[in-house]
């Protein structure tokens, strides 16, 4: 298998799951600054021109959640449970994209990606909007995690890897994580995993 990635937000979860599972993947780094994600050979694998992409034999799979599920299913891991919890994982995937990582990703873009790629100053109106939306979603997750160690059931699942993706960048991205103690405790628990703390191969430069 080949996992195409770059040291930006979404590939973090896929790389972390691959490392956690010790998946037999060859990591292929794409330099976004040089436009390597827009090369014809890569667009043939992922017409969106985004990262990550997983190639497993004849299968070219894009979208982080799908890649995580494939990696976990391939080794029959409980990260992708084969019981009623699977529906809960899917629910949190959906909620995450609609409500949690979307504003977190916007703050990541404004405060980290813009300066990294020379895209100008942060848009103050967008920062205000995203901060408000993130706080509203974080309040929901904080309530859910009050008496739980993980998002689904009593053990780690792919939902945790998906939901936590922006939180390692909370300080630099001005994500108000400290306002939500249950979310913060849960992410500290995620940080106990080496695969979460250091998900990328060593050639990566911190984003």
Overview of this protein structure:
- It is a single chain.
- The chain is an alpha+beta fold and 207 residues long.
- It has two domains: 2-79, Glutaredoxin; 85-193, Glutathione S-transferase Yfyf (Class Pi), Chain A, domain 2 (Up-down Bundle), CATH 1.20.1050.10.
- It is 50% helix and 8% strand.
- It is built from nine helices and four strands, in the order E-H-E-H-E-E-H-H-H-H-H-H-H.
- It has a four-stranded mixed beta sheet with strand order 2-1-3-4, with helices on one face.
- Strand 3 and strand 4 (59-62) form a beta hairpin.
- Helix 4 runs antiparallel to helix 5.
- The two termini are 25 Å apart.
Structural features:
207 residues; 50% helix; Glutathione_S-Trfase; alpha+beta; Glutathione S-transferase Yfyf (Class Pi), Chain A, domain 2; Glutaredoxin
Secondary structure elements and pairings:
Blueprint: E1 2-5, H1 11-21, E2 26-29, H2 40-43, E3 53-56, E4 59-62, H3 64-74, H4 85-116, H5 124-144, H6 158-163, H7 170-173, H8 181-190, H9 194-197
Parallel strand pairs: 1-2
Antiparallel strand pairs: 1-3, 3-4
Family: Belongs to the GST superfamily.
Protein name: Glutathione S-transferase
Domain GST C-terminal: 82-207
